[in-house]
Amino acid sequence: MNDYLYIIFYILGLVALVGIVTNFRQKGSYLVTYLGFLLLFFLLSFLRWERGADWTAYQGMYDKISSLSDATAFGDSFETGYKYLAGIVHAVFDSYTVFLFVQACIITFCMGRTIWRYSPSPIFSLFVYFALIFANIFFVRQYVAIAITMFAFTYIVQRRFWKFALCVLVAMQFHSSALIFLLAYPLYKWRFSTPQLIWSLALSILLSLLLSRVMLTLFGSMGGFVGDKIANYLGATEGGSGSMKLPTLADLAFGLLSRVFMVVSVLFFLGKSRLKDVRLNGIVNFYLFGIVLYSFTAPISLALVRIVNYYDFFMILLLPYILYVPGRLLNRFLLALIFSLYLFTRFMSLNNQYSGEGYASPFSPYKSIFDKQEQVDGVY
User: Fold this and answer.
1) 331-340 burial, b for 16+ CB within 10 Å, e for fewer?
2) Of 24-33, 90-99, 350-359, which range is least confident?
């Protein structure tokens, strides 16, 4: 059992609930607590050793790229920017921990700033963040890209397209799938009434399911780096290499049910009020578009579903908005408890996805750079 992860989850959840039902947010200690959790996640994310999904593949790549010339000759398995960053860090510091540190700095700054700036309850957002992806303690390069696109949300709000596009371009240097986030810019301004939203969502999902096989053929014929990446996803099968299992049909069914729960919550609690807040309406649009993407990609490839994460992550901002709809404190507390139970199921699903029969746990027990010479059970 990943005991330390459960301890963090319970403590963070308790503090998040306190923040929802009290005026804790108005006190200076709230910021200190928020930064304290961020610091914890930051330290755990780069001080780890042999922990995290696909550790062997990422460390193996880093060991082979000892200079910029090596990065150029390494091939197309990793994005250019990511390879050059590895080459620079390796040439200057010759330390994989420093390479993790640089990426952890990017993630912590981008996610921490965005959550603090746009969430009605930043600590509850951290709770959601931890339940969804362990707050990126065990990040891979796609989550660096996602953090950068979350940072780009500021430029969507401010309607500064070129700065937004530059952020997406930088994110693509870590993971080319970030290209899908370009759609977020026009999506932000779309306005749907509740009936329009329901019909549009239903028709989009139905259409995506019908056209999925057509798009499978189209994607399979694409060339270039992006085409190769898509081909790799399409060729991935359940139970592939690495420490992370690809989602099973049961996992995908759970994913669909969890999204239905979120849609019902959005429609029931936010209703027309979302249309009065441009920012909230944009966040809702992102999350609902993620559901359409999910229904579109799941029938094509279980691995391709990962591109949905660029929009799924906006649940981190969306859930706290919903929590503040009930006027009565008791109703808000009860709703927070319901969401906490929902987040616990997401947390457990994440644990199950990354471990199981035939898979050593990539998380537990935690192993750091200070004991990396020791043999610890669970290392894969």
Assistant:
1) ebeebbeebb
2) 350-359
Contact assessment for residue 242 and residue 60, using Cβ atoms and an 8 Å cutoff: no
The 10s digit of each residue's pLDDT in 256-285 is: 778 888 888 888 888 777 888 899 999 999
Whole-model pTM? 0.87
Contacts of 341 (CB under 8 A, 6+ apart): none
The DSSP code for 183 is: G
Outline where 152-193 has alpha helix (H): 153-157, 161-172, 184-187
Q: Which of 282, 338, 346 is nearest to 311 (CA)?
A: 282
Q: Where are the alpha helices (DSSP H) in 298-377?
A: 309-312, 315-323, 329-353
E strand spans, 33-173? none
Q: Which residue has the tokens 């999204």?
A: 259
- Cβ atoms of residues 279 and 157 within 8 Å: yes
Reported as half-sphere exposure (CB side, CA atoms, 13 A), residue 116 has a value of 14
Contact of 304 with 212, CB cutoff 8 Å: no
Beta bridge partners of residue 368, listed in sequence order: 48
Of 25, 45, 44, 40, give the one whose Cα is nearest residue 122: 25
Rounded to the nearest 10 degrees, the angle between the axes of helix 224-235 and helix 194-220 is: 100
Residues whose CB is less than 8 angstroms from the CB of residue 359 and which lie 6 or more positions away in sequence, other chains included: 243, 245, 380
Token reading at 13: 């959840």
Per the structure block, which two tokens stand in for 334?
């009860």
Whether residue 294 is predicted with pLDDT greater than 60 in this model: the reply is: yes
Q: Of 329, 320, 259, nearest to 118 (Cα)? A: 320
- Long-range contacts, stretch 22-28, CB < 8 angstroms, 24+ apart: 25/121
Give the torsion sign (CA, 47, 51, 55, 59).
positive
Q: Are 252 and 298 in contact (CB under 8 A)?
A: yes
Please state which of the ranges 89-103, 176-190, 273-287, 297-311 shows the lowest mean pLDDT: 297-311
Residue 58: which residues within 8 A CB-CB, separation 6 or more?
52, 140, 141
8 A C-beta contact, residue 361 and residue 372: no
